[in-house]
Amino acid sequence: MGILTTVVGSYPVPDWLVALPSEQGLIDAMAVVLKTQENAGIDVIADGELGRFDVNHPETNGMIEYFVKPMANVRGEVTRADVAAFRKDKGMVFRVRPSAVVDGALGEGALDLPADYATARRLTSHKLKFTLTGPHMLSKTLLDNHYGSPAALSLAIADVLAAQVAEIDADVVQVDEANLPGHSEEWEWALQGINRILDQVQKVPAVHLCFGNYGGQSIQQGSWKNLIDYLSGLHADHVLLELAHRGNWELPALKEIDAKVRFGLGVVDIKSNIVETAEQIAQRIDETARVIGQERIAYINPDCGFWMLKRSVADRKIAALVAGRDLYEKAGG
């Protein structure tokens, strides 16, 4: 089947949706984003995560609040005392406030991921990916007044999400964890939670990890080498890793990951407005294949989501992604 192309998830919100938001406008925007990827030749597309769009917070892509605030026993009204308690956690210094407060045992509440997936599914017959934020990251952004530990909170979140993922028949379901790479010492309890979700995926389970992307900047420090055991233990078909922005110095570490886990190579740098050439993409595939073997490369993809870039840049980058894959295969890769 060869190497497939995909996106990590988010896509720039069309300016006209921000200016004049409506339910129909949101559906129209989602259709545009899906069709843009289809026209570019992307093999597995996504809805741009536009289903998470919040008119009151258009500058974010809903990676956190969208998932936690609808849950039962989660309080969205955050007091000054809550903020003071949250700030004691040095691992979340880049957040000023908690996303919400957990005051009791979690339930799904009004969260309805299957309905949001169904909206996108109706708009395309193409192979479709559904993405969600993982329990490790979500637990780290919440103020916990009930469970007593991030690990226990993470498992509770995982159970809520897993029950909903079990009803989603997307071609790929991808769980995103953007905080763990900077806190690799937490990998054991993080692995427990994410595997509960991955085990409920109907078709192809995937995991995306990066070092953060806010304002086009990395907000975590670390190395993939610190997460070898975590990556090897994932119940996933493949892991999509941020590599283009970081360079290829970590490729030998990837070879140590259990062979049952394949890779989605980050070959497009979303923290740069410069559009890669097909030749650059092909070279990045070739360099990685020489180290880990081409058979372990399931997908090539951007490092992270595109939501921080302008649409004109994102559109050209996905076109380059496909052209680079085609060039690599034409050359006999």
Describe the structure concisely.
This protein has 333 residues and is of the alpha/beta class.
CATH fold title: TIM Barrel
Question: What would CATH call the architecture?
Answer: Alpha-Beta Barrel
Instruction: Please give the CATH class.
Output: Alpha Beta
- Into which percentage range does the β-strand content fall? 15-25%
Order of helices and strands: EHHEHEHEHEHEHEHEHEHEHEH
Roughly how much helix do the residues carry, as a percent range? 25-40%
Key features of this structure:
single chain; 333 residues; alpha/beta; TIM Barrel; eight-stranded parallel beta sheet; three-stranded mixed beta sheet
Write a structural description.
With 333 residues, the chain is an alpha/beta fold. It has one domain (58-304): Alpha-Beta Barrel (TIM Barrel), CATH 3.20.20. The chain is built from 12 helices and 11 strands. The protein has helices at residues 15-19, 23-40, 65-68, 80-86, 113-121, 135-141, 150-165, 187-198, 228-233, 251-254, 278-292, 311-330; strands at 4-5, 45-46, 72-75, 101-107, 128-133, 143-144, 172-177, 204-209, 238-241, 262-268, 297-302. The strands form 2 sheets. The chain has an 8-stranded parallel β-sheet. It has a 3-stranded mixed β-sheet with strand order 3-4-6. Helix 6 packs across helix 7, helix 7 (150-165) packs parallel to helix 8 and helix 11 crosses helix 12 (311-330). It is globular. The two termini are 13 Å apart.
